[in-house]
């Protein structure tokens, strides 16, 4: 599991490495520059022309060192160091002297006026103006340089973070003052802002470069954020005993579907059955009974008193887990039944889709949710629960607040789905792809989570494992079918291989 630190902590990590390795700061910068130059040289051929924009701080020092190393490799490099206030960081000044000593360095120090070079689509800009320590929007001359970079046809490589982008909260940032990178080469660790949808135009593709920051320091320093890979959660998977029977893997109740929305219950039921549950019962209105019985013969049904919707709370005493929400609709009788279901429930529970929308319209119910239940909102559903959010950072922080206040787990769905625990800690998932942005995908996730809760997994473990497997199944489906044609049913079809892959990782 890779930790994600606030930018202030990254500075502390640099200092810890310098003190405890020990290594001089200029040598740590050289180590980073070599990793950067190697990554850049691995992508672009010797005929590529690079234009380097360096700022006066340590990000600029990195850029100057990269310019020198690329020039030594035989690349054509032109470098501009912006020193408009007459003050460079010590390591930036040292790298300025090193670059100036390179024969035919093509190096310029900008102190006032700057004439923008003419660039083509074959050129590459290396952006080293400002790094992750920035705490206010760029303005004046630097904002003008950023606008030039963004208007040029050249590809842009940003060092550590696109200049102008802050590491966490960009609520009050100026979009016109942020570099639009084609590639961001982040040093050692990702920045939280990389994981937010609205920052994709700035960050572009991002890669992590290991620069040897202290592993001991990273282990010691606390953070509420981390990035999880399949190998991190595979250890949670429980092996099955030879003498196990269906009673060992739980009884699950799925409350889903209404007239015209039987597909939601079918998808969730199939996913639940493909995720190891022992027995599954689907609570359906009468109009959907035949559909579910035919489409999912392995599941049992329990018929609601209503012909067309969920209108009668179910008895959950005989079940180890309940999921409620996919395709429910929001009729008045459904709202009343959901309130009764929530207030009567001590059974581990997953709430999704229309169950969340009903909660959003009746926020007083949030304080009455069963402790430890799992909510699975997409961003719009999250906004209905906590109020309209300006951006992804605010939405994440409000979701963390709700998780703490209501003592629940929240699965905030997206490209890097955030699994938030009741203590506010947040694990970002790395599996999945844009092809999964299709109707029914969330219903499939609900089924997976229901199966894991029924099998006795702790809610936090069920959420982390279920989200990872769901995303991996989507990746397998995309590999076979492409992203455009992918449907929720394809995710279900690939769940068996996804579980098998997780079992192999667990060993």
What is this entry, summarized?
The protein is α/β, with parallel strands linked by helices and 507 residues long. The chain is built from 18 helices and 18 strands.
List the helices and strands and how they pair.
Layout: E1 2-4, H1 7-20, H2 25-41, E2 49-54, H3 58-72, E3 76-82, H4 90-100, E4 107-110, E5 124-128, H5 140-151, E6 155-159, E7 183-187, H6 200-203, E8 205-209, H7 215-220, E9 225-228, H8 230-234, E10 251-255, H9 262-273, E11 279-284, H10 286-295, E12 300-303, E13 321-324, H11 332-344, E14 349-351, H12 354-361, E15 374-375, H13 379-386, H14 392-406, E16 409-412, E17 418-420, E18 426-429, H15 441-454, H16 459-481, H17 488-493, H18 495-506
Parallel strand pairs: 2-3, 2-5, 3-4, 5-6, 6-7, 7-8, 9-18, 10-11, 10-13, 11-12, 13-14, 14-15, 15-16
Antiparallel strand pairs: 1-9, 16-17, 17-18
Helix pairs in contact: 2-3, 3-4, 9-10, 9-15, 12-13, 13-14, 15-16, 16-18
